[in-house]
Amino acid sequence: MKTKITALIALFLLSISATAQIDRSVQPKPGPAPAITLEVPGEFELKNGLKVLVVENHKLPRVSFSLVIDNQPAVEGNIAGVSGILGSMMGNGTTSISKDEFNEEIDFLGARLSFGSSNAYGSSLTKYSERILELMADAAMNPLLTEEEFQKEKEKAIEGLKSNAKSVDAVASRVGSALSYGKKHPYGEFVTEETLNNITLDNVRAHFLKNYNPNNAYLVVVGDVDFRTIEKQVKKYFKKWDKGIDVTKNIPEVYNNVNATEINFVDMPNAVQSNISVTSNVKLKMGDPDYHAVLIANKILGGGFGSYLNMNLREEHGYTYGARSSVGTDRYGASRFNASTAVRNAVTDSAVVESLKEIKRIKTEKVSAEDLKNAKAKYVGDFVLALERPQTIANYALNIKLNDLPKDFYKTYLTKINAVSIEDVQRVANTYFSDKNARVIVVGKGSEVVTNLEKTGIPIKYFDPFATEVSKPVFSKPVPAGVTAQTVLDAYLNAVGGKTTLENVTTLVQEMSASFQGQNMAMTLKQQSPNLIATDVSILGMGSVFKQAFNGETGYMAQMGNKQPMPAEAVEKAKAKKGLFEEINLLNDASKKLSVSGIEPVDGADAYVIVIEDKDGETSKNYYDVTSGLKIKSVSTTKGPSGKDVTQERTYGDYKEVNGIKFPHITSVPMGGQNVELKVSAIKVNEPLTAADFE
Predict the structure, then answer these.
(1) What does the pLDDT look like over 382-405, one tens digit per residue?
(2) Strand, helix or coil for residue 315
(3) What pLDDT is stored for residue 250 in this prediction?
(4) pLDDT bracket for residue 34 (50, 70, 90)
(5) 3-class SS of residue 649
(6) Residue 96 Cα distances to 99, 101, 114, 138, 237, angstroms
(7) Taking the mean position of all CA atoms in its chain, how far away is CA 228?
(8) Of 27-31, 334-338, 516-520, 636-640, where does the model show the most confidence?
(9) CATH 3.30.830.10, the chain: domain bounds
(10) What share of residues in the chain are helix, strand, coil (percent, to 5)?
């Protein structure tokens, strides 16, 4: 032991001595790019055209299977969405195994098996791998495509569209693709409720027969396998997969870039921030001579935290949490340059100007040697790290085949990255990054951002959420004479049943449900006059996950069993409420300042906007339909735990009468990039509640 300790001390002293001799003021010179030795996967091909790549790796007793069907992109037209429905139906049983039996066996084996419209993926322990391969083959060749499952998936797809109808990100993505490529291009067309309703089960089956075949398919096998064994297994399970008819599809040309930079604006009155995308079409393939230089140029412009765009918009100006850019590659010559960010409404115009400034900067000013070195180092590091994963070898081999790349593409990758010069960066930036003929697609709240966008001097065209050009929207109309906050609130109270009827309500219980990220939630809301309230949220299979209660004097919040007292500020606000209906509280609370700011459109209907300002300076807005008087939207802004403003929006619809009072039965809340719909299943008015309900 003493000898070991002595040796360690000696080694430590030697390291100190060596360190002392290094001149830290001189930056070390980069060494040569590491030599890349890539394993060549084993290959074979079945008579039906299925090509198989095998990468053996025996470090862990696991195997993965990736099936890729290399179909040309195609326009689906009036049945757009048929491939998506097919993908959701695949992998849910076969003609010989029921859906339940299929899924139960996979779960029992601790395996994974998933399908898309042109791909599949499976993984398992080595000892179960042959069975997973067999199930994959069966599901690929003999999917269980029933009318019952078709209707379920079709309804899910329609619900997904409705859920994303008010998603700024979803609208921005759809409009950006449609305007760039054209609605009749495979990359530009989009799914609508109408096209989904056009789809029949026969359409799905026909799509499967035409497109899901081995003609241009690749099966990639990675893991603890023996080449000869896997060759026998693949032939055994996939040899009956009949070869289909090769179909050459006519891919239309993409739209040309605009002659001069313009703003394409989509008004989303519900938007609490703006989605900005500076985009232009490019033709770039992985095999092009410029490819590696474009990677480096994009990394410097917007490909990482220290990029031009991010350092400007996030670090210098604080407009956003992040700004990024990307340049796509496409073997069919249809891809885009895109610089994007999301910012608060107040700085939308400034973010547009600064984004264009940074794009111009990399085109007109040479990048620094430091920025170039850092960008190269990042790519070198990521590339070398990726090589440690066996899946990488397979992916690279597949990429070479799919993109018709030279066989030494990845062997020379680092050499070509390191060969990129400052001049190369500027040259490709001028070729592929556009600030003079770009579409600046902005999706946001027009009433708050358009006036300032007009001041940029960039021409503005207006589009609806489905990329159809429209006239400039009317964002706000003047309030007619005689309309006040009092008259609007009185109209609302009359519309829902009358002030007297509402004042006679002493208890209220609402039962609601919602679906979020595949989880089914249930919520019960109990209220008792004047201000008692209790909320209980549960998730199917998990039980109660959130509770909040206020008994008139004290309250608490409990999340996943973690119970905490309600903050003093929240207690005071809860005590201030005197009644179960907000509008009655507003009329009776002299501490709140109410005003009608204008008339704004909400989902196609004109609404009076009442601005509510409390004594602490916090503001909120309620929107009341001009025709019906009903409340159809509310927006509140409060200070979050970090001190930043947190905005919450709700829209209300499907009003139904219960005990002489109209209640909204659907409340939509933006959450996690999508809209979550709270659907009321039951409302109980003036049913007895006890103190225990609020403890």
Answers:
(1) 999 998 888 899 999 999 999 999
(2) helix
(3) 80
(4) low
(5) strand
(6) 10, 10, 18, 9, 14
(7) 42
(8) 334-338
(9) 42-168+182-238, 262-470
(10) 35, 30, 35
Select from 444, 447, 515, 465 the least CA-distant residue to 165: 465
State whether residue 154 is helix, strand or coil: helix
Give residue 274's identity as a one-letter amino acid code. Answer: S
> In CATH, what class is 42-168+182-238?
alpha beta
Considering the chain, what percentage of its residues have pLDDT values greater than 90?
75
Residues of the chain with CATH 2.50.20.10: 485-694
Q: For 248-296, how does the pLDDT look when each residue is reduced to its tens digit (9 = 90+)?
A: 778 888 899 999 999 999 999 878 889 999 999 999 999 999 999 999 9
> With 50 as the cut, is the pLDDT of residue 22 above it?
no
Which region, left, alpha or beta, applies to residue 220 given φ > 0 means left and ψ of -120 to 50 means alpha? beta
Buried b (16+ CB within 10 A) or exposed e, 171-197: bbbbbbbbbbbbbebbbbbbbbeebbe
Rounded mean pLDDT of the chain? 90
Contact, 467 vs 178, CB < 8 A? yes
On the question of pLDDT at 25 being above 80, the answer is no
Give 485-694's CATH code, choosing from 2.40.30.20, 2.50.20.10, 2.115.10.20, 3.30.1340.30: 2.50.20.10
Residues making up the chain, counted from first to last: 695
Asked if the model's pLDDT at residue 636 lies above 90, the reply is no
Rounded CA gap, 489 and 580, in Å? 15
**CB neighbourhood size of 68 (10 A):** 20
Candidates 230, 225, 227, 228; CA nearest to 57 is 225
DSSP 363-386: HHSPPPHHHHHHHHHHHHHHHHHH
Options 3.10.580.10, 3.40.190.290, 3.30.1490.20, 3.30.830.10; CATH of 262-470: 3.30.830.10
